Amino acid sequence: MQRRPNHLPLTVLTLALMGILSTPAAAETNTDDRLKALEQRLNTLESENRTLKDQVKQTEQKVEATGNQMDRIASQGGSTNSATSIGGYGELHLNKLKNRKAGGTNKDELDLHRFVLFMGHQFDESTRFFSELEVEHAMAKDTATGSSGVVAVEQMYLDFTVSEAMSVKAGLMVMPVGIISETHEPPTFYGVERNPVETNIIPTTWREGGVAVTARLADTITVDGMISSGLATTAAKNFAVRDGRLNGASAKAKDPAYTARLKWTGLPGIELATTLQRQTDISQSVETTAGAATLYEAHAVLNHGRFGLRTLYAAWSLDGSGPKAVGADKQNGWYVEPSWKFTEQWGVFVRRSSWDNRAGDVADSRYRQTDLGVNFWPHADVVVKLDYQNQQVPGGQDEYDGFNLGLGYQF
Questions:
Q1: pLDDT beyond 70 at 84
Q2: Residue 95: which residues within 8 A CB-CB, separation 6 or more?
Q3: Of 300, 360, 298, 353, nearest to 325 (Cα)?
Q4: Is 0.90 topped by the overall pTM?
Q5: How far apart are CA 226 and CA 175, in angstroms?
Q6: Architecture of domain 160-410
Q7: Fewer CB within a 10 Å sphere, N or C end of the chain?
């Protein structure tokens, strides 16, 4: 078999010689290209550097201008802290009530009952300020009709966070008693008017100047303790507790009040609470026939699905011959209020109330009232209310039956 000649070694040798002869020229060409590319890159970096320097200079100018502006604001007494917040609530009432007392005057009235502004400020993580400024009945004085309203500071206090489980408040505060004393914005309760028991017995909105401590135990129990100014009711006021509120306005502070509340929220939608208050002299030592006063209060709030229930009992015990002489040594009241929300916007309720500011006498002085109505919330913070009330009152007293229409909001 004849073998074919192998030309591969010759071919490889030829290619190798050509590569060796051509390498210097190729290397020289690649070096020139790399030098040109490097020069272009250096030019680009220099341009970017000039741009960065200009941006830094502009930023420094902006920072300086901002600092000057902040100095001007501070010198004018302004604040650049966004921790300041505002809010408020209000309610407009239309009352169409017939007075069943012989010769009594009906109540046909449209009233801007309350207009309240909140203002708060967060100084730091542990120090806050809170306040409420209230205007009742639209104006302080109507010279045309002779009717009077109220312009008042409802609350003004500092809140200090001591730890996750404890805080301290100092200033003018609503009392930690009852259901609506601390939460009384119109969208949060049923009925146009606040319930009569927490109006006449507790009485909401009751505020005093003092110091309060709140301790939270195991996320289910809250304990509140408060030392404050007290009520100052006298024989001229028949020792009615509501008429003894001084609201922090040059309030007599000879005889302080001590308040303690225990609240349990161990199950979702359930609140159980009780309050005890002791005041050393209900008249602030004005009446020699009056003495110490003690308030007992207990309530339960249940919200389960669409069903709601509120019930409360409160009672005063007043020492001294003065309160006893007019039956005011015992004052008490209770109410039960079931409710049902058909939807998030519609809810109905019925409430039965009973209260007596002269329960210590033998005469019938007890008031009873039944309310039923509907709330409509077009927004969670806006409410329209309509209810019917029926009263049974002691003989000779005003007895109002009829309808109430209300509009309320909070923000």
A1: yes
A2: 107, 108, 109, 110, 111, 192, 402, 403, 404
A3: 360
A4: no
A5: 8
A6: Beta Barrel (2.40)
A7: N
